[in-house]
Amino acid sequence: MRHIALGVNIGNLSRGKRPRELMLSRCHRINQNLTQRGVDLRVVGFYRHTGNLLLETVGLDTAEVANLLSEADGATWIAVPDATIRKAVENMRGMPSPEEEVGVRWTPGLAFAVTQPTDTIISSTGKVQLRSIDKYTVAAWKRDRITERGRLDNNMREGGWGAISGAIAGQTSAQWTARSLTSLDGVLNRAKPV
Questions:
Q1: Which of 150, 158, 169 is nearest to 128 (CA)?
Q2: Which CATH entry fits the domain spanning 2-83: 3.40.50, 1.20.144, 3.30.70, 2.60.120?
Q3: Is the pTM of this model over 0.85?
Q4: N or C: which end of the chain has fewer CB atoms below 10 A?
């Protein structure tokens, strides 16, 4: 069974002031740890340095996968079956995008519950349009300022995907992790067809 693992609060693994562990090295280290422990779980792919891993297991459920990966890596991860993420991505693509604004690009993505939400009613804000897919998945369109040439305006940033996670967390009393559809497509494309 294939799962997609999403790192929680790890941001883009290629950025930061201190040197980051290369993804190939991180995946190798995780796999060595899992092998030494005799665990039925392997990292078989990743998408860039976005904190998205492709995992394979024969019989572990998502909670076991998340716990074992978190223990092996030392960071917090959630696991979602790749079929569930594919379905959520397709579902979101069928939803209408927010109204266009001059100088703005609405970047689509999904947020996944890390802990049990106590409230399922969410509201959009000026920086993000939100729509529940189910209790554990939210479609999100992040408001990104763009230049006249259509590129992200680095001088007018309105927050990344971590800010989206925080906005949903504040409304649901739960922890969330969010990703752009580009990142999710990237890791899903690493999965071999079933």
A1: 158
A2: 3.30.70
A3: yes
A4: C
